[in-house]
Design a protein that fits this description.
The chain is built from 6 helices and 2 strands. With 240 residues, it is mostly helical. The protein has one domain. It has a two-stranded antiparallel ribbon.
């Protein structure tokens, strides 16, 4: 005997609610196999649940789509920031710039090592520092660091910042949708349970097979257990 299986994914929840609403579009509410009060609740709840799942799905897809570009812009920004600091250090080693020049960039005066540039926050922090530091230095009339110039560093840094902010926005949208869905999901499960119970109660006087057919037309899902599927297959083979 097949058993009823309530939806356990958001896609299945949407299908269950939509199928019951589609039936409601074809016949008057008083002829439905479920209560008018349930129909009213379903009618107003379904669009909100669908919109929230759509937003969550779209933000996740857009994150994945832009992630490749995000990684490339991060790599370029890291490369140009790193090269600028290396050239600055070489200029100090050659005596073209004074040791205290490093102070303008928030670098330790006697430290020739590159700062850590492993994370996105590192890139944001050091990009901002070297751009501000070089602008202060140029304001005093000193010759610019070249290969790369700060202008080229700035282009790649700002490209990275722009896509980074966009990714953060998409992540926030996705997280907000997830939180909202987790709340709405409980309501969806409650409505579907009530809906299916009412539909099955309406057709209780029919024989089991006919009842399942009627209920399934409203979106109620029935599944066979493993051994039942096997028996059903064997029955079909025997009748061939």
């Amino acid at each position: 005997m097949p058993y009823r299986r309530l939806p356990n994914t958001d896609s299945a929840r949407l299908r269950a609610m939509q199928k019951a609403l589609v039936i409601a579009e074809k016949i008057p509410p008083y002829q439905l196999a479920y209560n008018i009060s349930t129909y009213q609740e379903l009618k107003y709840f379904f669009p909100e649940f669908k919109q929230t799942t759509d937003i969550q799905k779209e933000s996740l897809e857009r994150q994945a789509e832009k992630n490749k570009k995000h990684i490339e812009y991060l790599r370029k920004a890291r490369l140009f920031i790193s090269h600028f600091i290396q050239v600055l250090n070489f200029s100090i080693i050659r005596g073209e710039l004074k040791l205290e020049t490093r102070n303008l960039f928030n670098l330790e005066e006697y430290d020739k090592k590159l700062p850590r540039l492993n994370t996105e926050n590192d890139i944001i922090k050091w990009g901002e520092r070297i751009i501000a530091g070089e602008e202060k230095r140029l304001f005093t009339g000193q010759s610019p660091v070249t290969n790369p110039s700060i202008a080229r560093v700035k282009v790649h840094y700002e490209d990275f910042l722009r896509i980074h902010k966009n990714q953060k926005y998409l992540q926030e949208s996705h997280n907000k949708a997830l939180i909202k869905i987790s709340v709405l999901r409980d309501n969806a499960d409650r409505i579907i349970l009530t809906l299916w119970n009412e539909i099955e109660n309406t057709y209780n006087d029919l024989d089991a097979e006919e009842k399942r057919v009627k209920c399934a037309s409203y979106g109620v899902v029935y599944v066979y257990r493993k051994h039942e599927k096997l028996s059903f297959s064997n029955l079909k083979l025997d009748n061939m």
